[in-house]
Amino acid sequence: MGKIKAFSALLLVSLLASCSLIESNEDTQSSSSSTIESSSSQSTEISSESSSSTKNSQVLDDFSDEEIEYARVWLNFGNNKDVDNLKVTLIPAGSLVNPNNVNYGIYEEDVIEIRGPKETDGNIVYSVTKEDSGYINIYSVPYNFETDESQEGSNYSNLNDNIKSVYVEPEDDQAITQLIDLLDISERDSFITMDEAINLYEKGIQATSDGEISGLESEFYSRDYFSIAQDNPDYLMLSFENQGRGGQDYYIFKGEDGKIKIDTYFEDYNKDTPDTQWTYDIETQTFTEDSKKDTIDPFTEETAFEYIKKQEGFDDDIAVEFSEIRDDGSIELTLASKKMKKAGGSATIDTFVIYPNGEYYSKNNKEVI
User: Fold this and answer.
1) Which residues form the domain of 34?
2) 282-317: string of b/e by CB count within 10 Å (b at 16+)?
3) CB 364 within 8 A of CB 335
4) For 297-353, what is each residue's pLDDT tens digit?
């Protein structure tokens, strides 16, 4: 009987130990499973974050650095971020600030203008300070020169001295992509308008002829005889239908170091050098004429006549009607039109006095050229 009790006690202890072991194993498995699930959950979150980060970094991959720059500049400094479109204009160095008025000055470096469709949207004119620096130079240029009453008639020659360096914040990628879709990018259409170019030419005529404007009052001159031959962002070429001697003359207007060069080509612009060249200084608003005279050697009636034909751009219709060697060694030539003489009209074109050093003048205006 005692043995049976002892055996029963031993069996009970064994069963209890077994149950304890099973519970311990289950707890261990449960803990292990929980650890695995936790690890798996963290891995999924990291993978998701990594994927999201990669996706964000690729949002702007389809766009150029320039497009991203324009959008960021507008998001930082534009008056109205919620616009329907944005016009981006690339303006080369040497361009007139205002193509309708030369006295507003010239940009000394390449600049970019971004403008909204309405004046209230504003505009930004800027240059890049240094690639990848994050900074730009902003110019103080009005949206519309004609309505900028505070600056009306002023001289913008100090424009390049009054620029503001600012930092461009990166901004949100999604906002950038939405704005890029609105960009209309182009180069500036014209260096100078035809009307302003003609105005400048007429001022040059008066300035280089001591105020005399006989040439502008001639029956052979009219603004209507001008037309655009070539129109580019950095220069304008006008052709002029010369009613006096026939053919076309050409005038090229181009900016250079705060000045405007006006080159004149008689009959043909495919020459090594222009027939005449003026320089207009924007700051001083004065003209100078570059001399391109050659010594006439030998100095005879024939060589003097050929020299005048070249300088004035006369064609073969012009001939010598009268010539005289003057006491001071110069030669006086009166020129006439063969066609006009044949038609019975007044054929005389002009009378020139020519010197051996290449200087000459017309008896009509007395200006030494």
Assistant:
1) 25-58
2) beeeebeeeeeeeebeebeeeebbebbbebbbbeee
3) no
4) 889 999 999 999 988 888 999 999 999 998 878 899 999 999 888 888 778 889 998
Number of domains into which the chain is organized: 4
Residue 1 maps to a domain: no
Provide the 3-class DSSP secondary structure of residue 56: helix
What separation in angstroms does the CA of 338 have from each of 215, 320, 335? 22, 10, 10
Alpha helices in 58-152 (DSSP H): 65-77
Other beta carbons within 10 angstroms of residue 155's beta carbon come to 14
Q: Are residues 257 and 163 in the same domain?
A: no
> What digits encode the pLDDT tens for the residues 118-135?
999 999 999 998 888 899
Number of residues that make up the chain: 369
Q: Which two tokens mark 81?
A: 């971020």
